[in-house]
Amino acid sequence: MRRPCSPPTPCLHLLPCTAVRGTIQEVTPEPERQDSAIHLRVSRLYRQKSRVFELVPEGDGHWQGHVRTLLECGVRPGHGDFLFTGHMHFGEARLGCAPRFKDFQRMYRDAQERGLNPCEVGTD
């Protein structure tokens, strides 16, 4: 998987098109395209410019959608929350990076304490 970001980016100051907190529900490898579709369950939508993620009408107010990444990244479903960031490429959402959310929180707080954060993001 393409995590953690290198170098770690404690803030969303690059303003990706998409930034969400969520979990990986399913990964569909597509070898003919040399990429994978990552189906996400989103608990917090920070930013999206396109309608990549849609609110699930029934349920607890979560969002769902999918992003794509290179097959070589080896993404697989698992436990834990991640901060997913990405951008649109030819009409498809592409994964930028996905640190574990607890790692993002730690990096963000460290940068905040040192006065290095150029913006504020809710880390709840």
Secondary-structure map:
Layout: E1 18-30, E2 35-48, E3 53-55, E4 63-70, E5 82-89, E6 92-97, H1 101-113
Antiparallel strand pairs: 1-2, 1-5, 2-4, 3-4, 5-6
Main features:
124 residues; mainly beta; 6-stranded antiparallel β-sheet; 42% strand; globular; disordered N terminus
Helix and strand sequence? EEEEEEH
List segments where confidence is low: pLDDT < 50 over at least 5 consecutive residues.
Answer: 1-15
Structural class by sheet pairing and helices = mainly beta
- Percent of residues in beta strands: 35-45%
Q: Outline the biggest β-sheet.
A: 6 strands, antiparallel
Walk me through what this model shows:
By secondary structure, the protein is mostly beta strands. It is 10% helix and 42% strand. The chain contains 1 helix and 6 strands; from the N terminus they run ββββββα. A 6-stranded antiparallel sheet has the order 3-4-2-1-5-6. β3 (53-55) and β4 (63-70) form a beta hairpin.
Task: Please provide a brief summary of the model.
The chain is mainly β and 124 residues long. 10% of the residues lie in helices and 42% in strands.
